[in-house]
Write a structure and sequence with these properties.
Layout (H helix, E strand, L loop, with lengths): L26 H10 L5 E3 L8 H5 L3 H13 L3 E4 L3 E4 L1 H7 L11 H12 L5 H8 L5 E2 L1 H15 L6 H15 L10 H4 L10 E3 L6 E3 L9 H15 L4 E3 H6 L4 H4 L4 H9 L1 H4 L4 E4 L6 E4 L5 H4 L4 H12 L1
Antiparallel strand pairs: 1-3, 2-3, 4-6, 5-6, 7-9, 8-9
InterPro entries: DUF4007
Protein name: DUF4007 family protein
Pfam family, one: DUF4007
Length: 318
Amino acid sequence: MSRGPLFENGYKPLFSGHETFPLRYGWLKKVYDAVASHDDGIASKSIFSDDTAIARFGVGKNMVSSMRYWAAACEIIEDIPGNQIRIKALGHKLFGASGLDPYMESPSTLWILHWRLCGRADRTTWFWAFNHFSHLTFERDALSKGLLAIAHERGWPRVSAATVKRDVECFVRTYAAKAASAQLSHEEALESPLTELGLIRATGKKDGFRFVRGAKSSLGDGVFAYALIEFWQRYSKSKTLSFEAIAHGPGSPGRVFALDEGDLADRLSEIEDATEGLLRWSETAGLKQVIRSADLNVEAALGLVDADFRVRERMKVA
């Protein structure tokens, strides 16, 4: 099996850009609104650096830079030629006037954002932690040492221990809620919206954390199917994809969503309905694999997530 993109020649690691601030509630919507207020949803990059940026976003200069970083990392916006920024399809789908979840009330939104951050190797710590780190429990120092080891092995230039340490700190704060205390409100403990996914929890020991593997009840079939299609398109051109690749391949749904093999098999057994026949689960002759009936189209597959939001709306009405 391929060792993944971190081990490819020419891979460029990234350990900075967030200014040490994890993604926070409301940030993506604020960035979306700021860019969308311009003609055709295209704005100058200067909206994040001009004299009115601090007033526009209501945070300090470093936080404005962090907001831009996270909006780009989550694929809400993208840079385009001419020193400009435009809104991407996911931004319109989630935060537009008719968006699925403009105030990020649905866990489906959080699962999509988590997939955007950890399903690709653009952010080295995020990808490595979910796709290569082999232990369930860890301390921040263990993650830092592991990343520095691979940096040395691969000969990545200009990777300092201090930079990696800050990146790991931001990663942990993105997924692990702070311990509740008399001085800390529930809202303050949930520093980042992605803590709600429960993928990383504190163990109770000093600087101890654990990845939470197993069934994810709030992960909808639509988001899972979309992630599978996107992974498949990157991983292989074959008309079949093995269970092993889906469960354990770097950047796979099994890895990124921290699913155990039993729950993954259950989800794959229902993939035909979730994808309207595009994908089909097969266990013929003991060979576990998914078979596709047509070419994969990631842009069209994004529409599969809509069903998860409709389910949530029906539940709210009921």
